[in-house]
Amino acid sequence: MKEVWVYIEQEEGRIHPVSFELLGVAKRLAQELSGRVAGVLLGHLVDDLRGEVFAYGAERLYLVDHEVLAYYRHIPYAKALAELARKYRPEILLLGATPLGRDLAGGVATLLETGLTADVTELAIDKETGHLLMTRPAYGGNIMATIICPNHRPQMATVRPRIFPIPERAEARSGEVIKEEISLTEEEAKVKRVGFIPKEKTVNLEYAEVVVSGGKGLGGKEGFAKLRELANLLKGEVGASRLAVEAGWISYEHQVGQTGKTVRPKVYFAFGISGAIQHRAGMQNADFVIAVNLDPEAPIFQIADLGLIGDWKTVCEALIEAIKQERKAS
Amino acid sequence: MLNILVSIKQVPDTTNIRINPETGTLIREGIPSITNPYDLIALSVASKLKREFKAKITVITMGPPQAKSSLKEAVEFGADRIILLSDRKFAGADTLATSYTLAETIKYLQQEEPFDLFLFGKQAIDGDTAQVGPGVATRLNIPVITYATKIEKIDPEKKLIRVARKTEHGVEILEAKLPVLLTCEKGLSEVPFLPFSEILRAMKAEPEIFQADGPIPFDREKLGLKGSPTQVKRVFTPELKKQGKILNLHEVSLEKAIKEIISVLKEKGIL
């Protein structure tokens, strides 16, 4: 039976939500291939995560537990994943296009001498050939390319977080667990972690329900303080266009777009953002886009659900006041 | 003595890209070619290390003959040897074929003297794959440290390196024995001051040209389009998807516009 594999990305015993998104899309692909979805979990003492993997739709779980896998390192993780793939021959292998997923995928595809498509935003099965159609942006998002890997297996892709929705969770689901022994040594890992500095405050842009973004039109750092005020009122996060980041007004962690984060909020505010394609690539999956820009020709208006032609600051300040009034009234 | 290899790529400047709306293809005409910005970081790191320690820098690139200009730029950063891999048979390579070609080249160059440090950009801005660095490291069977943000320490005698790398949860400090391949993230190094003597040297520099049939005995089946498992099936321009409600604040009152937004926020359950 053809299998569609999802690499379950875990660090410190926590699964990255992109893995659940991938289980959802893998299910659709597996159905079209009359196959099944399997999760692959590598780590140490990660047994208690198996329930999660099944709850989000895996029918089978490959599990490698080894102390050398206690934290992510390229060589042992790549070796374990490649060995599993050699033995069980999945049709498709999907990983999140996270820093970890991209690091791992490049090594695994080379070990398996197969094709790998980076940063995919659409996945489908070709009805005639059964090949996986992997569509991704290229040249900074200016064009989209559909890539196939017809003669090598597995067909591998890293997939952008937040492109696909997280599937419905079903607690009662379970499936088959295949525990695999793989020989790994500390020496062959070749790299040792000697320190770790956690992020002070993680910007949870990708999973925020409201994103308030600013661009070049803000004119400076001070503009982002205003946006922060609005974002806080709405329990959202602050985003930014590449130009605003490059101008040094806000840190790269806040960048939305092809070279930044992909977001999928219920409401996305674009203040003073022209909406270059590279920005749109990161926010067009938002449920509702509200754009404010002085320039009626700004491309952002072409994907806005509600567009206001006017000064961003006037709108932002009035909105902050109006929300405060609403809160008082209720 | 540190023996450093830097791998670079010449790319179209994607911030200036235009698409032919009828064919959906790239208008290459008039688009400036630049050295991939992340590769300039790799070159900057090499340049700084050369000043700090005794070091030799070899720079390789694969591309059309015009990629020579990026190699000349590398000389400004202190490259001692520059090599251009240029042949029609290399063309159309995906990341697997590219990593094969680069790794074979490195193995060939290492016959003289092994490299201690390999520096790659974290990704190239045309393809944004970030796959070639890890691919080359895998083929050379050496450790890769991606998204490196700082070289904390390097000891050419003991052949040890300590590197900070960005993860999603913070910054991890990794230690490894050389040789190591680093992919360079923004901030790893500023562009250093480039002495005029190097700029003069760059003007006269000519790269060695390596082709498919020499001097490296490549397996032809693994080169270029032929050696690439992935194929481009279709290229198209992304379409804009919606046409929403547009209010011009010169015509509509601010109050009305704000009311619209408030009702959206309520509808979406945010207020």
UniProtKB/TrEMBL annotation, chain A:
GO terms in the biological process aspect are: fatty acid beta-oxidation using acyl-CoA dehydrogenase
Matching Gene3D superfamilies: HUPs, TPP-binding domain
Name the SMART domains on file.
Answer: ETF (SM00893)
Residues bound to FAD are 241-242, 255-259, 272-279, 293
Recorded hits in Pfam families, A to Z, give: ETF, ETF_alpha
> What UniProt keywords apply to this chain's record, in alphabetical order?
Electron transport, FAD, Flavoprotein, Transport
Question: Does Transport count among this protein's keywords?
Answer: yes
Cofactor: binding details: Binds 1 FAD per dimer.
Residue ranges annotated for the Electron transfer flavoprotein alpha/beta-subunit N-terminal domain, each copy included: 4-193
Q: Which residues form the signal peptide?
A: none
For the keyword Ligase, the answer is no
Give the cofactors, semicolon-separated. Answer: FAD
What GO MF terms are annotated? electron transfer activity; flavin adenine dinucleotide binding
Q: Which family does it belong to?
A: Belongs to the ETF alpha-subunit/FixB family.
Name of the protein described by the UniProt record: Electron transfer flavoprotein subunit alpha/FixB family protein
From TrEMBL, chain B:
InterPro entries given in the database record: ETF_a/b_N, ETF_b, ETF_beta_N, Rossmann-like_a/b/a_fold
Residues in domain Electron transfer flavoprotein alpha/beta-subunit N-terminal?
Answer: 23-214
Which ranges of the sequence are coiled-coil? none
GO MF, any single term: electron transfer activity
Q: Which UniProt keywords apply?
A: Electron transport, Transport
Q: Which Pfam families match?
A: ETF
Q: Which Gene3D superfamilies match?
A: HUPs (3.40.50.620)
Domain of life, per lineage: Bacteria
Q: Does the keyword NAD apply?
A: no
Q: What is this protein called?
A: Electron transfer flavoprotein beta subunit/FixA family protein
Q: Which organism is it from?
A: Caldimicrobium thiodismutans
